[in-house]
């Protein structure tokens, strides 16, 4: 099963590469067929086999010899490894499907923000709806919705609480990010947070609920600060350089799939002791 998930991940990763290249350029991912971005020659099916072709051709176009970005291999191997991990951790039910979709979407966003500072609506908006649509079937960890119901003395069915949690988290965290961006803009006069980041955080919140999203935001800010500082100190960036916050959020979101549960459980154990 794990090997099968790995193979499926290679194929899906190959499609994610097409999305990463084309969506920020407003091109269709369905047609035309893949071409070399240097010589324009259409790539034959046998030169388009996930991972293998890249290794056989040693990362070069067969026609013109131009180097192909190592990102193609990286995305395929990363997606394959993630799918294998998900199969081990979540099995094959609806929660595994949800985790795989989530990881695939975040992989696209990680690379589009890193390469071009774009978080395409083609991912964040369907992602927001997918997160909400999964919530009645894959229960979210209790959070703001549970607290709200308790305060009002309401006892809805568990699937309804989970759906409420997804909706409320998306609204609250998306709203907080939007307001933070607005305040920053009013004070500094430059755009610090794009609307893409707001939509990404709403998507994360719809998929993960309020408490996991808080963890993801904290981890992403910490990572961004650490990596940013290292980049400035090593002379590769300046303090004013733009930061691909979306990439850090996407990375933290994927990591949370595998470790948020245990981190939050440990936290509540400490608090309740
Ligand atoms: Zn070429």
Explain this structure:
This protein has helices spanning 2-22, 52-56, 71-90, 94-116, 121-134, 144-152, 158-188, 195-233, 245-272. The chain is globular. The mean pLDDT is 92. The protein starts with a helix and ends with a helix. The chain is mainly α and 273 residues long. It has nine helices and no strands. The longest helix is centred in the last third of the chain and has 39 residues, at 195-233. Bound molecules: zinc ion. Residues 36, 38-39, 41, 61, 63-64, 66 line the site of zinc ion.
Please identify the oligomeric state.
single chain
Ligand catalogue: zinc ion
DSSP, total strands: 0
**Main beta sheet strand tally, sense and closure:** none
Give me the secondary-structure category.
mainly alpha
Structure summary:
By secondary structure, this protein is mainly α.
Topology:
Elements: H1 2-22, H2 52-56, H3 71-90, H4 94-116, H5 121-134, H6 144-152, H7 158-188, H8 195-233, H9 245-272
Helix pairs in contact: 1-3, 1-4, 3-4, 4-5, 4-9, 5-7, 5-8, 6-7, 7-8, 8-9
Features:
273 residues, binds zinc ion
């Amino acid at each position: 099963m794990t090997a099968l998930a790995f193979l499926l991940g290679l194929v899906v990763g190959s499609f994610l590469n097409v999305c990463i290249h084309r969506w920020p350029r407003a091109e269709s991912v369905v047609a035309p067929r893949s071409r070399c971005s240097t010589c324009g020659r259409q790539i034959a099916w046998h030169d388009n086999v996930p991972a293998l072709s890249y290794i056989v051709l040693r990362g070069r176009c067969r026609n013109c010899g131009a180097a192909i970005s190592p990102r193609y291999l990286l995305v395929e191997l990363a997606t394959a490894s993630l799918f294998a991990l998900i199969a081990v951790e979540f099995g094959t039910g609806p929660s595994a499907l949800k985790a795989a979709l989530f990881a695939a979407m975040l992989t696209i966003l990680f690379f589009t923000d890193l390469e071009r500072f774009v978080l395409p609506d083609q991912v964040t908006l369907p992602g927001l709806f997918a997160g909400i649509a999964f919530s009645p079937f894959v229960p979210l960890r209790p959070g703001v919705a549970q607290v709200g119901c308790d305060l009002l003395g309401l006892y809805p069915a568990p699937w309804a609480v989970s759906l409420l949690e997804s909706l409320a988290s998306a609204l609250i965290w998306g709203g907080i990010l939007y307001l933070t961006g607005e305040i920053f803009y009013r004070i500094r006069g430059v755009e610090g947070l794009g609307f893409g980041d707001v939509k990404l955080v709403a998507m994360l919140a719809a998929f993960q609920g309020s408490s996991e999203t808080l963890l993801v935001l904290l981890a992403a800010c910490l990572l961004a600060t650490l990596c940013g500082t290292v980049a400035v100190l090593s002379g590769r960036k300046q303090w004013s350089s733009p930061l691909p916050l979306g990439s850090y959020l996407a990375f933290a979101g994927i990591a949370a799939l595998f470790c948020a549960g245990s981190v939050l459980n440990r936290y509540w154990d400490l608090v309740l002791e």
